[in-house]
């Protein structure tokens, strides 16, 4: 594995990249390439991105990039410039995490080293959009003054970000892992799609559409087999049948936020604290008989 950083100015020399690949049959190059291309970055392309894209397509190398921005600039739109290039590697997933104070988000690459790997624990984010709307409703100020417009924009961004973080529940879950044959079909589809975007050859587009239909059929069959295997493994003795029925039929009731002595309460803990504070204030001993 090779970590690469390219300065924003200057061009990329693919001869050096070929020299790196010549030393090992299986190579993964990743880092901040400062390269933009429509294959991985929504928006305009630059010279470095065009060079890397043509090099990857001609060398049959996989371009691995997340679908969320990796670099945030206050004066320009967010971009995807932290990417990877895999030669003879089978990758399964790539995503970013918002955990550092830097203007770059860390990028995590998952690779498949063998076909017997257990399901990976991945981060699952579930947003409560009703709670999100309520937070904005109670915390969003009125029309900002023109004299302090920059501060008003910053406050607006902070309120929206806080509302997203507060109304989003993050948990570790075992995602459905697709079989190796479906993942290979997805890789082939992505390769033909990149070739079609670069060459505009109609045959590539027809091949992509055919692969999309095949992948959809394969995924539906895989889900059906998984569901049948789950049903056949259920029994009454270990309460697995009861637990599945309860999980499917149980309807979750969304409790609206409460206005307590300390402000709005959204989570279960905050609501319990609001009840406690309200009861404590209400049931006080009288000062006089």
TrEMBL record:
Which ranges carry the Endonuclease/exonuclease/phosphatase domain? Answer: 2-108
Gene3D superfamilies xrefs = Endonuclease/exonuclease/phosphatase (3.60.10.10)
Matches recorded under Pfam families:
Exo_endo_phos_2
The Gene Ontology terms for molecular function here are: RNA-directed DNA polymerase activity
**Which keywords belong to this entry?**
Nucleotidyltransferase, RNA-directed DNA polymerase, Transferase
Tree of life domain: Eukaryota
Can you say what this protein is called? Answer: Probable RNA-directed DNA polymerase from transposon X-element
Q: Which organism is it from?
A: Trichonephila clavipes (Golden silk orbweaver)
**Organism taxonomic ancestry:** Eukaryota, Metazoa, Ecdysozoa, Arthropoda, Chelicerata
This protein's gene is called: X-element ORF2
């Amino acid at each position: 594995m090779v970590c690469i950083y390219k300065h924003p100015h200057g061009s990329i020399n693919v001869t050096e990249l070929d020299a790196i690949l010549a030393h090992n049959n299986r190579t993964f190059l990743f880092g901040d390439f400062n390269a933009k291309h429509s294959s991985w970055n929504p928006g305009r392309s630059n010279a470095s991105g065009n060079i890397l894209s043509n090099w990857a397509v001609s060398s049959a190398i996989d371009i691995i990039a997340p679908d969320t921005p990796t670099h945030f600039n206050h004066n320009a739109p967010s971009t995807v410039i932290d990417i990877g290039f895999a030669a003879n590697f089978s990758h399964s997933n790539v995503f970013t995490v918002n955990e550092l104070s830097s203007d770059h988000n860390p990028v995590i690459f998952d690779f498949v080293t063998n076909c017997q790997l257990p399901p990976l624990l991945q981060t699952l984010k579930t947003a409560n959009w009703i709670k999100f709307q309520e937070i904005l409703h109670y915390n969003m100020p009125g029309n900002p003054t023109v004299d302090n417009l920059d501060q008003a924009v910053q406050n607006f961004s902070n309120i929206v970000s806080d509302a997203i973080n507060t109304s989003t529940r993050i948990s570790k879950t075992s995602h459905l892992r697709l079989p190796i044959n479906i993942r290979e079909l997805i890789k082939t589809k992505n390769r033909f799609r990149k070739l079609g975007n670069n060459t505009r050859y109609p045959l590539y587009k027809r091949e992509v559409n055919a692969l999309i239909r095949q992948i959809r059929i394969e995924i539906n069959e895989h889900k059906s087999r998984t569901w049948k295997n789950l049903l056949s493994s259920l029994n009454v003795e270990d309460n697995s049948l009861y637990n599945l029925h309860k999980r499917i039929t149980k309807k979750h009731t969304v409790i609206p936020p409460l206005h307590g002595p300390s402000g709005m309460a959204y989570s279960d803990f905050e609501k319990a604290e609001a009840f406690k504070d309200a009861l404590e204030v209400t049931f006080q001993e009288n000062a006089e008989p």
